[in-house]
Write a structure and sequence with these properties.
Layout lengths: L5 E6 L2 E6 L10 H16 L5 E6 L3 E3 L21 H16 L4 E5 L2 E3 L1 H7 L3 E5 L3 E3 L13 H9 L1 H10 L3 E2 H7 L4 E3 L4 H13 L3 H16 L2 H15 L3 H11 L10
Parallel strand pairs: 2-3, 3-5, 4-6, 5-7, 6-8, 7-10
Antiparallel strand pairs: 1-2, 8-9
Helix pairs in contact: 1-2, 4-5, 8-9
The structure holds ligand T3D.
Length: 264
């Protein structure tokens, strides 16, 4: 697939999507929002892709909204009313990531700020290079957290710590992020992509439909009560029990051999 703001490649059933606006720390312009959303749509429609790595070029992961993009809208000493771009562009992107029935591994290579921090939080798992930082930059420019940060952050690290990150807008180092449970792994920068790809390849070799359904159940657990989650689990098990991978998993166990999952 050809994009102007992204690099996109697939190998070993893993799609690697790389944000590619390094001069502005991969901050979001309209084109990158559009292209990233269509990349996830393409991934959803391609059964050969069974896991995703999301990373970025250069020294930043993503610095949030490109603050130069709207320059002209601020002329005349008055800010534009923001909100529509969130409804039309950011929110559909975040929803596409959470609804994708395949795991997304964020390979966080540099600073993740503002909506770039939200983008990292919308991944299922995060591997961070040891020199990165996470920054809820919004308040520094008088805005509020958006693109899902207010949802994901308290779930991941608790209300008080989320409030501290949001209110004080101090950068959180990779080591601290690991302590807080904001990331799954921290590795040296030269190990970032190999580690993330290794994790994604492992995920891609698992029963894809069961993983997709587990993600759906996790999503629901964050927003619904126990009864709804129990029912979703029962529906999910009805689906998973009918897959080839389930049969293969049981047979492999009984035959004392490794299972060969195909995602079917
Ligand atoms: O619809 C809507 O608009 C609402 C949606 C809002 C969503 C949001 O994301 S709001 C939050 C927007 N983001 C920010 O406020 C972060 C702004 N950036 C920074 O605070 C810093 O750049 C960082 C802390 C992320 C990194 O600092 P540092 O010192 O490592 O790098 P730097 O020198 O500040 O940035 C390097 C270059 O990237 C620089 O360009 P230059 O001077 O070399 O030509 C800088 O201007 C550019 N850059 C960084 N962030 C942005 C950016 N350019 C445009 N937009 C950015 N967000």
């Amino acid at each position: 697939m050809n994009f102007s703001t992204l690099l996109f490649e697939t190998a070993d059933n893993v799609a690697t999507v790389t944000l590619n606006r390094p001069d502005v720390l991969n901050s979001f312009n309209a084109e990158m929002r559009r292209e990233l959303t269509s990349a996830f749509a393409a991934i959803e429609g391609d059964p050969s892709v069974r896991a995703v790595v999301l990373t970025a070029a250069g020294r930043g992961f993503c610095a949030g909204q490109d603050l130069r993009e709207r320059m002209s809208a601020y002329e005349g000493g008055r800010a534009p009313v923001l909100g529509e771009t969130l409804r039309q562009e950011y929110n559909p992107l975040i929803l596409a990531m959470r609804r994708l029935p395949k795991p997304i591994v964020g390979a966080i290579n540099g600073v993740a700020a503002g909506a770039g921090c939200s983008l990292a939080l919308a991944c299922d798992l995060r591997v961070a290079a040891e020199n990165v930082s996470f920054l809820q930059a919004f308040v520094k420019i008088g805005l509020v957290p958006d693109s899902g940060s207010s949802f994901f952050l308290p779930q991941l690290i608790g209300m008080a710590r989320a409030a501290e990150m949001m209110f004080l807008a101090e950068p959180v180092s990779a080591a601290r992020a690991l302590e807080l449970g904001l990331v799954n792994r921290v590795v040296p920068p030269d190990q970032l992509l190999p580690s993330a790809l290794e994790l994604a390849r492992r995920l891609a070799a698992l029963p894809t439909k069961a993983i997709g359904q587990a993600k759906r159940q996790l999503n629901l657990a964050l927003s619904a009560g126990l009864e709804a989650v129990l029912e979703e689990e029962a529906c999910g098990q009805a689906m998973a029990s009918q897959t080839h991978d389930h049969l293969e998993g049981v047979q492999a166990f009984l035959e004392k051999r490794p299972a060969r999952f195909t995602g079917e």
